Amino acid sequence: MREVDRRTKVSRRKFLRGAATAVPTVAVAASVGVSVEDAWAEDATTLSPSTLKTLVKAARDIYPHDFLGDSYYITAVKPWDARAAKDPAVKAMLEDGVRRLDQSARDRFQAAYVDVPWEADRVVLLQGIEQSEFFKKVRGDLVVSLYNQQELWPKFGYEGSSAEYGGYIKRGFNDIDWLPKV
Amino acid sequence: MAKFDLNDDSVVVIVGSGAGGGTLGNELAQKGIKVVILEAGPRTELQDFINNEWESFTQLAWTDMRTTSGSWRVAKDFPNLPAWIVKSVGGSTVHWAGASLRFEPYEFHARTAYGNVPGANLLDWPITLEEMEPWYAKAEDRMGVTRTNNIPGLPGNNNFKVLEAGARKVGYKEVHTGRMAINSEPRDGRGACQQIGFCFQGCKSGAKWSTLYSEIPKGEATGKLEVRPNSMVLKIEHDASGKVTGVVYADEAGQMQRQKARVVAVAGNSIESPRLLLNSASGMFPDGLANSSGQVGRNYMRHVTGSVYAAFEKSIHMYRGTTMAGIIRDESRNDPSRGFMGGYEMETLSLGLPFLAAFLNPGAWGRPFTSAMEQYPRMAGMWIVGEDMPQETNRITLDPKAKDKYGLPVASVHYDDHPNDVAMRNHAYKQGAAVYEAVGATVTYPTIPYPSTHNLGTNRMSEKARDGVVDKFGQTHDIKNLFVSDGSQFTTGAACNPTLTIVALAIRQADHIAGAMQRNEI
User: Fold this and answer.
1) Chain A residues touching residue B370 (CB < 8 angstroms)
2) CB contact under 8 A, A163 and B204
3) CA separation (Å) from B362 to A76, A136, B57?
4) By C-alpha distance, which of B95, B149, B512, B156 is closest to B328?
5) What is the ipTM of this complex?
6) A77: exposed, middle or buried (Cβ count in 10 Å: 0-12, 13-18, 19+)
7) Judged by CB atoms within 8 Å, which residues 71-90 of A form the interface with B?
8) Ranges of chain B whose pLDDT falls below 50
9) Are B231 and B252 in contact (CB under 8 A)?
10) What is the Cα–Cα distance from B360 to B357, expressed in whole angstroms?
11) What is the Cα–Cα distance from B226 to B403, expressed in whole angstroms?
12) Which of B143, B329, B458, B459 allows an S-S link to B484, with CB 3.0 to 4.6 Å?
């Protein structure tokens, strides 16, 4: 059966630092990945680096995939900065949401959200704010902004667009080989 | 290409270009009758279709504001998206899966067959399967349905093979790759299926039948059919005698236009069609057009639906190939010993990764959800489609507050499951899981209904004017030159996918309209 190559493919289109700049940091760091520690958040115009980094951590806790590097979660979360720049209500919702999350983390675990070491504990904090507009909006956006990244698809064995390759008629549409004989 | 004058009151105006409207338009044009189809959406052609779920959704889906209420989960998870249907020339025949099944005989007289089901507004159709047979035959030939007309069945893809193996192990007998309006070999000037796997995003090979590239161009070639896209019909007008005289629509530029008509046929799918009749209320018809029965908008049905996905130890890649060419028909019989009236079909289904994330379990998050997503390449999937009970309180009304960009009330969709629906769905979840467990599924995921792709019943057929909106030919009881041509005509929903029946009814209705016009009855 034809399997799907799970390795990261370098995308010329996808820049973490914005389409205008020349150097694709993803391409350079393809095998290492960009992590939450890197300087990507310093480029934000409206949200603070610490707010963005908390959002990225929360994004991973909302949809945890251990085999995904931070770059996918960063890509998913980054657009909130532009939306916050355009709409003060969005900025307030995000900053307020992160502030409350950090407060509940300090109350319960004496640490900021990003510094609470166990995911299970951070998930308890997220469950505490599950009904908030902040959580609903962030999660609702994430389900598209994370899973709609084309670079991420091969990691889940999904191949994306097909018509330009002639469909699957010659590419294994019926090549399953492990079923019992009918 | 035909172009008819706005003041030409000899034309038939059809609202909508889908399975009903597109078929009716071509049929009438072939008979030499002048037709104007007014389609709310743009004319997106085959070469424009996109093999990308969210991009395609943005391109094709009807996303005009609607509101919802009722106990159904869709009202909670997708409050402004009760239905996933198409706003484009071709209507929902652009994104449909192609499943083309005939009703069972008793499904045309469900009230007699099921008896009085408390809380359900069951009614027999004023037609029998016997009367429909020649029209079904014409529709199957027109659409190129596999396993009819000497057309071979499609080859089974990986997702089908899993379903088939499990079905046989469980003891199911009627299992095959479906009766699909998708060419298994070249036919009618369209190529054979390439197993592209993006059936829901518009068929880029044209193998799947759609009024967009099958009926409409044939109609246009006669010189008698004019299709005006980006034309949103807002109101149907009538004269002092109660005869409809034409429609008012917003054109491409947003300007109001009035197209006169000898006959008007409404085929805007089951949410917009009753909305249009209700929004056409006048001094003479204060409850909306054709609504003396009060049934316009009522008896909204969306089929008992749901999905079962399952994870296995080894790869399947269910997205490779046709989305729905696979079926188990054994449960589509009527067998009250199972605990419900009516039956259901089990059909293969696959979603891409992005849509699975959105619809596997709306609102879910955390590891229980992500561990399911990580099974993706080892997943198989099926969709359940069964007969839901018509209820008078399941209905389309005009929203009291929300208005569209023309200032008209938007449609509000209310739906509660009937206990019969719940019992059927639970049975189907169990059976679906059993099929997959029989061939080694390690986890199964019963999945709740998506925004409705089958929308029926809101202008239903009835023998008596007090029980419904239209007669056996889709002619409204109240107004002779006003017709309904889409799935809103359905008296009851039956277990199977509706498109073949809509097309058969449209071909038959064209015959009736042409005859009535010739005899100067309308």
Assistant:
1) 63-65
2) yes
3) 19, 11, 17
4) B156
5) 0.94
6) buried
7) none
8) none
9) yes
10) 6
11) 30
12) B459
